[in-house]
Amino acid sequence: MKTQAQIIPALCLLHNFILVHDPDDFNESDTPSMALVNDSQANQNEEVFIGTGVSQAESTRAAAYQDTIASEMWTSYQEECSRHTHTSE
Fold first, then answer.
1. What is the pLDDT of residues 25-36, one digit of tens each?
2. In angstroms, rounded to a whole number, what is the distance separating the alpha carbons of residues 1 and 66?
3. How many domains, in total, are found in the chain?
4. CA distance 68 to 74
5. Contacts 24+ apart (CB under 8 A), 31-38
6. Exposure class string for 15-26: b at 16+ Cβ within 10 A, else e
7. How much is the pTM?
8. End-to-end alpha-carbon separation of the chain, Å?
9. What count of other Cβ atoms lies within 10 Å of the Cβ of residue 87?
10. Can you give the residue range of the structural domain that contains 19?
11. What residues form DSSP beta bridges with 49?
12. Is the pLDDT of residue 57 over 60?
């Protein structure tokens, strides 16, 4: 089990090594979430990429969607609690 636990970090290390030392071998369509974009490309596209190739605009849309889901879940929870309160009285 100890050896198996070391396989994933070793593969990650190998992946990162290949990205650094042979960037031409990187196929963007294989892993779109890891798109490599430099500052000049980002400025041309008018998008600022954060972290793992996610644009700021996409991050903002995702956060808004997450907030909408959380709000709907909270409303549903409150309605369910209200129903249980009325039925137990």
1. 655 555 444 444
2. 37
3. 1
4. 10
5. none
6. eeeeeeeeeeee
7. 0.41
8. 55
9. 7
10. 2-88
11. 55
12. yes
